[in-house]
Design a protein that fits this description.
With about 200 residues, the protein is an alpha+beta fold. The protein has a single domain, classed as Aminopeptidase (3-Layer(aba) Sandwich). It is about 30% helix and about 30% strand. The chain has six helices and eight strands; from the N terminus they run ββααββααβαβαββ. Strands 1-2-3-4-5-6-8-7 form an eight-stranded mixed β-sheet, sandwiched between helices. The longest helix is centred in the N-terminal third of the chain and has 15 residues.
Length: about 200
Amino acid sequence: MPVSRETGIVEARCEMSDRDCTIAELDGSALTPARIAQIDAIFFEASGRTFAPGAEREAFRERWLGRYLRGGTDVVLLAMDAGLNVAGYLVGALEDPSRQQRFADIPYFRGTFRDLCSRYPAHLHINIAPAFRSRGVGAQLITAFAERISDAGVPGMHVVTGKASRNVRFYMRCGFSQQRDAVSDTSEIVFLGRSLIAQR
């Protein structure tokens, strides 16, 4: 399912009661305030955390979402419903995070997972609005990201998540495999990698 970078939009079947879902690749720096607000709502709902407005909320958003919305080589994919409302998003980076200063605030990239990052350099964060979960939207976003970065010559991609998180099963269904466990800030985490070499 190639995502056109000329139009930025491709139609994709997402098993949503036989309706079409649109997957769009957008330059993060060109996102409208309305779309950013929709992405933010999905992001904070999925985080399961409640923040009062202020520095802590903004730092959390910046770490796991905001830094990917500035354009450059980062990828922003949106899943949109028939009314072009954001049903889910995927943000990702193509380069090895263990070699980038902007990810120095995430210790496991330069520590426990450094060697794995060189094998699976691209990484992503994905969240889906509650009404659109379990309808194939997330899998479509993963497929679009895999094709996008494979076209760019990236050999693999990864996600890091909680070892006991329900989303581990989702990533495994999307072709990721468990590479290594670790403990970060007293939480058990897992590095899941997916090779893209065979797709090129």
